[in-house]
């Protein structure tokens, strides 16, 4: 813009342009916003695809013409069989499942890494779980993990469509509707991108995009536009597609499915698309900044465009004119001539209607610029993977990026006889049905391709990609050795990382300084750590092989150190060998920072000292360590997730749901709380025999008896009495006031091992003063509230059993000597805690004064999670439950108002409350208390 203004002014001042014309041009420049076209770099890619562990395997499979279509994996089939049997679905006994390209292990997840409890993860939509892991991986692949983008304007755009058939929340409801409150947030579609934004503190836009089959590529398009207009600095664009209920039923089909599960794009025998699954993400960044920051660039997005079919021959029918227009618009946005394109990744659904229309629209677009025939290859990944629907566009996108890397075009499967409705000899494209070298269209022209994605919603997208620019090689200012590090949350995950990196380096041969730099600056650093000093990649491979064979402890390899550490609170008295205080870690970090000043090309001693400090827990200023290396980011394997099963627990058996279902017949239902007599429980095998139990009390004997019982069961017991100050009497005995800060101080040393909390307060006489009532509420209800806040602040993710002991807080038999309503508030809050914190299994045991301690201990040990409230009265055990009431059988009787009786109207100053109060006052001489919120 500035150059144009300067040119106009120069021409006008030199008399080469009249002043009136110059003024008009300058006026137009002020009113017309002229933006240079900004190209977008793809700097990270991650995917979870069927039957492969990584993109190297995926590329080999595609090049070798692998058909990914097959049967449902065994574990998924077993889960489906159990669900359909238990939920009494309508599909019948002879159930058949569709063939497709299925993901393995959709039930596997690493909840600890993402600060989730196993229960919360099991109730979370698997679409959310798997996208979390893939999004984590794409950030690692780009070299931006470890908090490098925390707080940045990084956006998250996810192509995804929720439908009733593949709804995990519906499955949860069918199996146990009581779990719905716990499963709510984890199954909200909007949380799919928001979870990664929340986890990593990303401040850019976060949204789900659903345009049916074009969702994934539209997500990439939207992310590009957001970067260009300044909404974000970088963006994750991703997509998720899974078929959770792939039953073979005609009424569940859209009409585009093929007869045999195969996709025969452009072939004369094509009759529809097969079905595929995938979870994919890419990380995007402005090209100029990616080049400046030495990012690993997979491809360049030169241009992209979106439009809509508008009115066509049918709501879901494609429109060739609209497809032509979106392609032309993308080419124009890219600023390229279409003859420089040498490959098109087609939408290619293999449908009778869709394929000819797509080729027609593509031909119309080319003919606007060229008459050349059969000069550009065309293909479709759907012939390998089937139709990934919302993920389809990104699957083709990843294929094209791999084509740039290998400079080859994979063959398209099942193309035996061209579609008779199309004259391929006259088209500008030809079907590539065999492996071939990918050559640019002309000398000096980079490899370029186009990608089409057309949703049956009518929303179309086309994108132009170009091969990445050649990195500018810098003269190496140093020689080895170099320091390479790996870390994980567990030793097993660290060993898997060793194997993954070893396999990658044996296949690829990146420069050792690039490997070290990427691992050091582009990854999180966890408590299990490995440091390796190597002169070159060959030596690093040798070291990794030695560790893979011998393990960490037994390896005696030169240049290799490993360690494990844990930072504990300063009030913990006795430290284990691997534990240290935060101040100790600061000392290690300060020492490491001093050592980095002496890092110099070719010197080994400073790196050895840094290695030693790193594995002991020091935070290293890695950019300083690698300041002389001239290193750049490279693609390396990411975190080796734990593979814990996280899936809905489905009871075995047929028809249980039907047997337990209450048929309402369309009538209104009323329920009443009832108490059901139950047999006593005996916990021969305690539900918890390890970990830490916290016993909260006001000094009553019951708490001491329970503490002894838990110790006998093998648990470490932390006892805390409520008092007027914080005091540590012994290592395991405290006095606390019960506020959030003190709970954090009390629990932090034991956070990872805390498994049970028992609150036993207020036994004996009822409070006889307002002060005593307030004290009971403070150490009871309010302390539970502060405890829950402390657990959340400490990010305690493991399941925790919380038992609230109360004494005659509720009427059970009607024979109670007195009721203690001040204790009912604690039980009420417990229900809320249970629902808002999925990992806190809150229970209430309400006893009478004659309940023996052994009964209470047995009740706590049995840990029946499905029952919230158990009561003991006169030697009998009861459970609270909701029971349907037949209102027709309930006799009607007038409400009796007592003269001079006291009646409380909550919300009494609202419209309804005032009307109720007027009604009561008109019926009887009563005393009214009006309570309202302020």
Automatic annotation (TrEMBL):
GO biological process terms held by the UniProt record: DIM/DIP cell wall layer assembly; fatty acid biosynthetic process
Coiled coil segments of this chain: none
SUPFAM superfamilies named in the record: NAD(P)-binding Rossmann-fold domains (SSF51735), Thiolase-like (SSF53901)
Keyword entries, A-Z: Phosphopantetheine, Phosphoprotein, Transferase
A molecular-function term among this protein's GO annotations: 3-oxoacyl-[acyl-carrier-protein] synthase activity
An example Gene Ontology CC term for this record: plasma membrane
Domain Ketosynthase family 3 (KS3): 37-467
Pfam families linked: Beta-ketacyl_N (PF21394), CurL-like_PKS_C (PF22621), ketoacyl-synt (PF00109), Ketoacyl-synt_C (PF02801)
Gene3D superfamilies xrefs: 1.10.1240.100, 3.40.47.10, NAD(P)-binding Rossmann-like Domain
Xref: InterPro entries: C883_1060-like_KR_N, Ketoacyl_synth_AS, Ketoacyl_synth_C, Ketoacyl_synth_N, NAD(P)-bd_dom_sf, PKS_Beta-ketoAc_synthase_dom, PKS_NRPS_Biosynth_Enz, Thiolase-like
Protein name: Ketoacyl-synthetase-like protein
């Amino acid at each position: 813009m500035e150059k144009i203004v300067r040119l106009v002014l120069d021409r006008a001042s030199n008399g080469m342009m009249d002043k009136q014309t110059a003024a008009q041009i300058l006026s137009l420049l002020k009113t017309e916003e002229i933006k240079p076209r900004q190209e977008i770099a793809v700097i990270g890619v991650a995917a979870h695809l069927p039957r492969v562990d990584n993109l190297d395997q995926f590329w080999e499979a595609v090049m070798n013409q692998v058909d990914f279509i097959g049967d449902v994996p065994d574990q998924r089939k077993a889960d489906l069989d159990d669900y359909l049997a238990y939920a009494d679905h309508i599909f019948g006994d002879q159930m058949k499942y569709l063939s497709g390209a299925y993901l393995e292990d959709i039930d596997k997840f690493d909840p600890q890494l993402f600060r989730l409890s196993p229960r919360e993860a099991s109730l979370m939509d698997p679409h959310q779980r798997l996208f979390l892991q893939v999004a984590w991986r794409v950030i690692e692949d780009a070299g931006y993990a470890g908090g490098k983008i925390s707080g940045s304007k990084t956006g998250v755009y996810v192509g995804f469509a929720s439908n009733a058939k593949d709804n995990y929340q519906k499955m949860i409801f069918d199996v146990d509707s009581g779990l719905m409150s716990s499963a709510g947030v984890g199954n909200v579609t909007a949380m799919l991108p928001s979870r990664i934004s929340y986890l990593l503190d990303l401040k850019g836009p976060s949204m789900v995009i659903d345009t049916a089959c074009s969702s994934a590529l539209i997500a990439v398009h939207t992310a590009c536009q957001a970067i260009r207009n300044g909404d974000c600095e970088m963006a994750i664009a991703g997509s998720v597609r899974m078929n959770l209920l792939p039953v073979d039923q005609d009424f569940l089909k859209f009409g585009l499915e093929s007869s045999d599960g195969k996709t025969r794009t452009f072939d004369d025998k094509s009759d529809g698309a097969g079905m595929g699954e995938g979870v994919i993400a890419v990380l995007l960044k402005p090209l100029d900044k990616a080049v400046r920051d030495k990012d690993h660039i997979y491809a360049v997005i030169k241009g992209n465009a979106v439009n809509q079919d508008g009115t066509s021959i049918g709501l879901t029918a494609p429109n060739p004119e609209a497809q032509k227009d979106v392609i032309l618009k993308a080419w124009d946005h890219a600023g390229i001539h279409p003859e420089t394109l040498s490959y098109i990744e087609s939408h290619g659904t293999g449908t009778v209607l869709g394929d000819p229309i797509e080729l027609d629209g593509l031909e119309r677009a080319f003919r606007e610029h060229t008459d050349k025939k059969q000069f550009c290859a065309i293909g479709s990944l759907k012939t390998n993977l089937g139709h990934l629907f919302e993920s389809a566009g990104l699957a083709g996108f990843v294929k094209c990026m791999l084509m740039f890397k290998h400079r080859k075009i994979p063959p398209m499967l099942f193309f035996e006889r061209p579609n008779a409705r199309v004259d391929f000899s006259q088209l500008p494209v030809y079907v590539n049905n065999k492996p071939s070298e990918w050559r640019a269209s002309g000398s000096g022209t980079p490899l370029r391709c186009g990608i089409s994605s057309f949703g049956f919603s009518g929303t179309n997208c086309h994108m132009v990609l170009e091969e990445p620019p050649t990195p500018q090689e810098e003269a190496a200012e140093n020689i080895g050795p170099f320091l390479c590090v790996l870390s994980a949350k567990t030793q097993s995950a660290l060993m898997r990382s060793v194997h993954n990196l070893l396999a990658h380096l044996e296949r690829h041969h990146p420069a050792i300084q690039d490997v070290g730099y990427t691992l050091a600056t582009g990854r999180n650093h966890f408590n299990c750590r490995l440091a390796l000093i190597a002169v070159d990649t060959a030596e690093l491979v040798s070291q990794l092989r030695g560790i893979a064979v011998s393990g960490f402890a037994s390896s005696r390899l030169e240049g290799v150190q490993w360690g494990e550490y844990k930072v504990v609170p300063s009030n913990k008295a006795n430290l284990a060998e691997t534990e240290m205080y935060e101040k100790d870690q600061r000392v290690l970090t300060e020492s490491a920072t001093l050592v980095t000043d002496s890092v110099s090309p070719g010197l080994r001693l400073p790196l050895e000292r840094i290695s030693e400090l790193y594995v002991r827990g020091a935070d290293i200023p890695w950019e300083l360590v690698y300041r002389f290396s001239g290193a750049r980011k490279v693609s390396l394997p990411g975190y080796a997730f734990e593979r814990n099963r996280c899936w809905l627990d489905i009871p075995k058996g047929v028809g249980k749901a039907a047997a337990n279902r209450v048929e309402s017949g369309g009538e209104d239902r009323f329920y009443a709380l009832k108490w059901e007599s139950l047999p006593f429980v005996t916990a021969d095998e305690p539900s918890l025999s390890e970990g830490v139990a916290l016993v909260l009390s006001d000094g009553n004997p019951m708490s001491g008896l329970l503490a002894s019982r838990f110790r006998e069961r093998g648990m470490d017991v932390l006892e805390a009495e409520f008092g007027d100050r914080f005091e540590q009497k012994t290592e395991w005995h405290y006095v606390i006031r019960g506020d959030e800060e003190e709970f954090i101080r009390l629990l932090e040393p034991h956070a990872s091992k805390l498994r049970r909390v028992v609150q036993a307060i207020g036994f004996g006489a009822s409070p006889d003063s307002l002060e005593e009532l307030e004290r009971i509420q403070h150490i009871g209800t309010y302390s539970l509230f502060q405890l829950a806040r402390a657990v959340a602040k400490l990010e305690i993710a493991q399941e925790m059993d919380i038992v609230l002991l109360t004494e005659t807080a509720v009427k059970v038999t009607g024979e109670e000597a007195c009721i203690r309503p001040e204790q009912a508030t604690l039980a009420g809050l417990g229900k809320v805690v249970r629902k808002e914190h999925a990992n806190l299994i809150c229970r209430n045991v309400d006893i009478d004064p004659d309940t023996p301690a052994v009964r209470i201990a047995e009740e706590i040990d049995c840990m029946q999670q499905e029952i919230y409230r158990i009561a003991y009265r006169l030697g009998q055990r009861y459970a609270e439950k909701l029971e349907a009431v037949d209102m027709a059988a309930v006799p009607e009787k007038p409400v009796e108002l007592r003269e001079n009786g006291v009646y409380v109207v909550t919300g009494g100053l609202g419209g309804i409350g005032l009307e109720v109060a007027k009604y009561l006052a008109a019926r009887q001489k009563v005393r009214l208390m009006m309570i309202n919120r302020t």
